[in-house]
Structure formats: structure tokens, C-alpha cells
DNA sequence: AATAAAATTCAACAAACGTTGAAAGTCAAC
DNA sequence: GTTGACTTTCAACGTTTGTTGAATTTTATT
């Protein structure tokens, strides 16, 4: 059969993950029904439960799928930035850049999947119910490596200051990738939430300046 | 009757708002049922619909109730900081401080209501579904006044830079007040998400340094 | 004390929810 | 081509959902 429909190409299991990713990003865990996921994926209702156990299992699978990829990319960027640095090790700017640049590389290049995924992570990160548990589980092992690198670049920093600075970075980052459209309305179109390159180019110096003011003693 | 139960004191309509505030903050709009709200408020199921029309009306009422108070407090803080400043107008640090300090004043002083409210706002701010619309509606008229003040303190700033800087501030702020507990786990207890004073004292210089690096030309 | 208005309860609706056991289909290995 | 292991569908289950019309109680006004 020579049909060009999207359905025939990818496997059903992946189509379910894609549909769930999109819907969870837009409406949150409780705002999406298993029926809606099945409909969007073009699949029977029961199939999601078969593959992922239950709704929560599906949610975890969506989060895990790209977390592994992102963590690897970020780790590679960190090690490359260390290798390129001179004897004194990488600068604060370089480390922050290694943390942010991989999101841009995947993020806004005609890849809807990654864009939805970052929207979902933004929502999870700020949610009381899951923010602590899930972000810790999926991202903090890597985040610790970045904080260790920052400790070397800022040898006199108080640990508590360093963690709070990362927290502020995390907040700025996730809100930016949430794509809520708020900055468009606030600025009357002068700043655009779709302009990820502009956001990235500003976030690196903004955050690095904060780190240095608090931690460079 | 001389009973000291909480029920008898406050009016039912306020009890519904309080219960909804707590529950929406923890579980989001779709994670809370009208029955759960009624139960928590100690009130009949139908009463919430009677007072607020429907579930969405209840949600809006919860958001609006404290937004008005917070906006007034922030406006007063901004004008006080302008009055106290010399001829050159307030510094960036002073303006940022006027924006953040009111949340601390209300926020963590044994007042659970405000704490839950800020958790709710954090969640709304990062949600694709509500973030653009609701935050704009309830907070942006005031935010524009703060940005105008920042424009005067940073006369050579590009407008787009200014809006992005505020966006980063907003992200750092809302995540911090979301109280997800993530920073506790990441830092092994060195930094505590309940320590709002510590967060506040660090956020002001962190954010102000970012503004100056990007906007002070 | 009678009256009108507002507040609250009761009971029920149809619709949507997550999950599951059993049946049917698909596919590769032998 | 028969077997056996996955995959997918079908049909239904018992709950829970938001909302509403009618009845009841409370409150304020006369």
C-alpha cells in the first residue's frame, strides 16, 4: 500500500508517547484523559494501558524518553567545555552555556516533539505535586555535575548560595521554555516567546552575572 | 453557643475559597473536584456552583481575591521606593526589592493562605493553558509600572532586553514560591525551600545583576 | 409575626473517567 | 502450516465528574 499517512510509519507505542507528550504539555496530567490520548494517537483506548500499565506509567514514560537524551547531550557539552578551557578551568559563562545550549540545539529546530517536551517539563518543575520528586529523579544526577563545575569556577562560593543560584536559573529556564505567550502580551510583541535564540543569548549572561555577584567572593 | 470550631467563624463563601485555594495549589485545576472542595470546606456540593457559577468561576475568584491585595501592596512599595530615592530615581536593586519584598511580607509569616496562593500562581504562570491569559489579566498592568521604573533606572536599555530580564525574574520568583522541595533534595538539605528570607535576600542581588549586565550600556 | 430575598441542602442527571478480562489479530520461528 | 508469544481490539465494569431544578432553611425587612 502506498499511502502517505503518518499512521503507517511509526509504531503504535511511539505514536501513543507522542500524543501523550503533546497533550500533557498543554493540559497537564489531570487535564488529559486516556481516551483523548488514544484518539490523538489513532489507537484503541486499551492499548496505552497495555504498553505502560496505567496512566501514571504513561506519564513517566513520556518524561523518561527524552530525559535520557537530554542528559547525555548536556554531559557531552559540559565535558567539551571543560576540554576547551585552559588551565584554570571553564568560566561561569561557559558552564552556563553548556547547560543551556543543548536545549536550543534540540529545541526549536522544527522539532515539535522537543518543544512539547520542554513545555511539559516546565509544568512539572513548577508543580507542587511532582516538582520535587520527578525533577530530582530525572535531572538532578546531571545537575550535580554542573554544580560541581561551578564550584570550581567559583572556589569561594558558599554552597547554599550556589544552590539558590541554580534554582533561579532553573526557574528562568523552565518558564522561558513553557511558551505561555505571556511575554508577547506584556511587551506588545516586542519580545516573542517563540524567539528561543534571543532568549538563549540573553539568559546566559543574565544568569552568569547573578552567579558571579552572589558567589564570586 | 460557645464552640471554638473554625467552621462557625468564617462565612461559607470564604471557606470555599480557602479550601479551593489550598487544593488548586497542590493539585491544579483539573486535579481537584468540586466534591473535594466542598468536603474540605465542610459545605454542600452545590454551594460552590451557587456562589461562583461553575468550577472555572471558582478558580478565577480564588486567583482574583489576593491579586488585588498584592497589586496594591506592590504599588505602594514602588511609590515608597521612588519617594525615598534621590534625584536620579531609585536604583535597579531598589526597584527589584520593591517588587519582591511584598511577597515576603505576606508570604511566609504563619499565613498558610498566602503561601498556598503563591504556590497556585507559580503553577498557573508556568502552565501553557493558563499562563498567558491569566497572568496577563491579573498582574501585567502593575508589572508595566515596574518595567517603566526600570526603564528610567536603565535609560540605555533595549526594550526587548528589559522584557526578557523581567521574564527571567518572573521564572525565578514563581519557582521559588512553588515550594516543590526540589532544592532541598538537590542540596541535601543545605538550602531549604521553606527559607523564604534566604531566598529573598539572594534573589534581589541575583536578578539585579542580570538586569545590569544586559541593560546597563 | 408576615414576607421576600438570599443562602443552603437534597437528589438526581447524563457524561466522562481509568481499568480490565476475554476475544481477535499479527508476526516470526520452527 | 502449526505453534506460541506479542500486539491490538472489543465491550463492559463500577466510579467519579460538573451541573442543575426543586425543596428547605436562614436572614433581613416591614
Verbal overview:
Two copies of one chain form a homodimer. With 217 residues, chain A is mainly alpha-helical. Chain A has a domain at 65-215: Orthogonal Bundle (Tetracycline Repressor, domain 2). Helices cover 76% and strands 0% of the residues of chain A. The first copy, chain A, contains eleven helices and no strands. The longest helix of chain A is centred in the N-terminal third of the chain and has 30 residues, at 55-84. Chain A starts with 5 loop residues before the first helix and ends with a helix. Chain A binds a DNA duplex (30 and 30 nucleotides) through helix 4.
Keyword list:
mainly alpha, homodimer, Tetracycline Repressor, domain 2, 217 residues, DNA-binding
How are the SSEs placed, and which strands pair?
The structure is a homodimer of 217-residue chains.
Chain A: H1 6-9, H2 12-27, H3 34-41, H4 45-52, H5 55-84, H6 92-107, H7 112-126, H8 131-153, H9 159-178, H10 182-186, H11 196-215
Chain A binds a DNA duplex (30 and 30 nucleotides) through residues 12-13, 33-35, 43-47, 49-51, 54-55.
Low-confidence stretches of chain A: 1-9
End-to-end distance of chain A: 68 Å
Oligomer: homodimer
Major sheet size, sense and barrel closure of chain A? none
CATH topology of the domain at 65-215 in chain A: Tetracycline Repressor, domain 2
Q: Could you spell the SSE succession of chain A in H and E letters?
A: HHHHHHHHHHH
Shape of chain A: globular
Strand content of chain A: under 5%
Largest interface: A-B, 67 and 67 residues
Number of helices of chain A: 11
CATH architecture of the domain at 65-215 in chain A: Orthogonal Bundle
Round the mean pLDDT of chain A to the nearest integer and report it. 91
Q: For this structure, what is the CATH homologous superfamily of the domain at 65-215 in chain A?
A: Tetracycline Repressor, domain 2
CATH class of the domain at 65-215 in chain A: Mainly Alpha
